[in-house]
Specification:
One of its GO terms (biological process) is RNA metabolic process. The protein is mainly β and about 375 residues long. It is built from seven helices and 29 strands.
């Protein structure tokens, strides 16, 4: 892949048209591994790009955080969190800073300057394992959810949450069935899957008032748990639920109607917990935590910037992708024709690389024709020449 000069003009162009003209099924089928990194000693557990797409950060159950130059294909920095562990690392709106969840000793979210390798502050409040952590697309905040049943919005400048809610639902238990949360692309709406039983939408300005819309998802989840949740870019008009049985489900973000199910995402299943993240000595309910970690907390799932394709890392080391443009295209949005019943979608293509274990992390670059996947090995996929 050729080195790209990310000057301001180029980034503005990319933001206006995030790969929409170039990302086709044919292009995706042509992706191949351009670069690999073999330096982790255990499975990767999270992966995040910064807002420019120039850098990414990973966490691993070897308790390392690694920062990569995604344009030049180089590892830039290695940091360790041996005492507290690390997962769900996120770049923030402040340059040179990341937030990540502890996995040992306590459940604090740590705010770190990777330029100086010093902690800026600690976000203390959760009493059980953090299952979701996401930066706001619109403000200097991060969103967290944990198995204590609490969802927090943290202002990066304060140690106390800016907003807190403890969602409740009928038919599900956070202790037994988990909780996950996500921002929509505008940063104005928060979606929470509570107890794998109910999907709730909150106005970020009025979180304490409770959800402005909710919908049972018991029929969708069945015996499975919701391991991860995300809005489909660029408009956030659909929500994707990643389940512990390896399936994914697409819902309309306005009506919360179930639109489609993606099958074949994890041929070997994930419900028994295949992600080797240790749970000894940490808080949180073992059954829900181990199942959600077995499905990688949804970190093995990504969506292309145009919102037309979902990619999922599989338990067998492959990456499958599904074309969902029939639901997310402008034509589909304008039709306003509700489906009589959810569609069942099979993969439109598969990447078979050199992952020798479950692909636990998968993320598509927001600006560059590039996707990164990881088991214990980190692989950079491109459609062009190698680095």
């Amino acid at each position: 892949m050729d080195t790209i000069d990310h000057n301001a003009d180029a980034l503005n162009i990319l933001r206006r048209d995030p790969l929409q003209s170039a990302l086709t099924n044919s292009t995706l089928r042509g992706f191949h591994i351009s670069k690999q990194f073999l330096d982790n000693k255990a499975a990767l557990t999270s992966l995040d790009y910064d807002s420019s797409g120039r850098k990414c950060i990973t966490t691993s159950s070897d308790e390392s955080l690694r920062i990569y130059d995604c344009v030049g294909g180089k590892r830039e920095q290695v940091l360790y969190s041996k005492k507290y562990g690390c997962n769900l690392a996120q770049f923030t709106s402040h340059p040179g800073c990341v937030a990540y969840a502890s996995t040992k000793i306590n459940d604090t979210i740590r705010y770190l300057s990777y330029d100086t390798n010093q902690y800026i502050r600690y976000f203390i409040g959760h009493t059980q394992r953090v299952t979701s952590l996401q930066r706001s697309p619109a403000a200097a905040t991060v969103l967290s959810a944990a198995l204590d049943g609490v969802v927090n919005v943290w202002d990066l400048g304060s140690v106390k949450p800016a907003s807190t809610v403890t969602p409740v639902c009928v038919g599900g238990s956070v202790e037994e069935r988990g909780i996950v949360a996500a921002y929509d692309p505008s940063g104005m709406v928060i979606s929470v899957a509570v107890g794998s039983a109910e999907l709730q939408l909150y106005d970020v300005r009025e979180v304490s008032k409770g959800p402005f819309k909710s919908q049972s998802i018991l029929d969708i989840a069945g015996q499975a748990l919701v391991a991860g949740i995300r809005f489909i870019p660029p408009l956030g008009d659909h929500i994707l639920l990643a389940m512990t049985d390896g399936s994914c489900h697409l819902l309309d973000a306005f009506s919360l109607q179930h639109c489609a199910s993606l099958k074949g995402t994890n041929p070997q299943g994930a419900v028994n917990g295949s992600n080797p993240v240790a749970t000894n000595g940490v808080s949180g309910t073992g059954s829900a935590l181990s199942k959600m970690q077995g499905a990688h907390l949804g970190q093995n799932i990504t969506v292309t910037p145009d919102g037309k394709t979902i990619l999922v890392g599989g338990q067998n080391g492959s990456i499958s992708f599904w074309d969902i443009s029939r639901y997310t295209s402008a034509e589909a949005r304008d039709s306003n024709t509700p489906a009589l019943k959810p569609s069942v979608l099979t993969p439109d293509g598969v990447w078979n690389g050199s992952h020798d274990g479950p692909v636990g992390v998968c993320a598509f670059n927001p600006h560059i024709m590039e996707c990164i996947t990881g088991s214990e090995v980190l692989a950079i996929w491109t459609s062009s020449s190698s680095y």
